[in-house]
Amino acid sequence: MPSTIYLIRHAESAHNPPPSQPPSPPSSVAVILTSPLTRTIQTTLAGFGAILDSRGAKLVLDPDLQERSDLPCDTGSEVEELRAKFPELEFGGLGEGWFVKEGPYAADDETVRKRAAGVRRRLKELADRLGAEGGERKDIVVVTHGVFMKFLAEDEGIDLPKAGWKAYRIEGRDGEDGPVIMSVFGIEYPYPYACSVLDRQLAEQEPAYVLGTIRREDWERR
């Protein structure tokens, strides 16, 4: 069976949590790709900590998943600042200027479309590799942002709530070497495995697991 890709919008970092406890993360998840902005990292750790260990899913901090705009709220942090906030994670795969909204991370539509296309191609390669390995873990989680999600899914109408998610399959288009698309698989849900959490609670939370974090380039070589 092909990989399912769970496209997740980050949770809110404060105020109201969902009214009920979300289900546990599925054991079928092999890789979690996360934007390196603080709110997406927090969402990932809050929602997927149970499977982010040396025996479970692998976490990849992918700067290509950062939000589209160059507003301060959508701009990431220096690597050293992230290390101070999340000392249990490995940030070696992030370049020092990963958050600068220039070049491949510029905020114009054409550049963002190219960045999203590159992510889709890598998702297709990753899904194909996981399928070829034949293991039980073959699904992929992508934790990203509301506007970039529109480019990634090629769907201007997608408007997930905070912590909302939608399931996709990824497939080729225009031949094996052409672009790839994300086709909807299943339905849209108001809350994913990650729930709304308070910044203060996360900051005070002691890690209760050994994270299996790897660099993006190291995963791509596997």
Give a nutshell description of this structure.
With 222 residues, this protein is α/β, with parallel strands linked by helices. 28% of the residues lie in helices and 18% in strands. It has a single domain (5-220), classed as Rossmann fold, CATH 3.40.50.
Note down, in words, how this protein is organized:
With 222 residues, the protein is of the alpha/beta class. The chain has one domain: Rossmann fold, CATH 3.40.50. It has 6 helices and 7 strands. The protein has helices at residues 38-48, 79-85, 109-133, 146-153, 199-204, 216-220, and strands at 5-9, 29-34, 58-61, 139-144, 165-172, 180-189, 213-214. Strands 6-5-1-4-2-3-7 form a 7-stranded mixed sheet, sandwiched between helices. Helix 3 (109-133) packs across helix 4. It is globular and about 40 Å long. The model is unreliable at 14-23, 190-216 and 218-222 (pLDDT under 50).
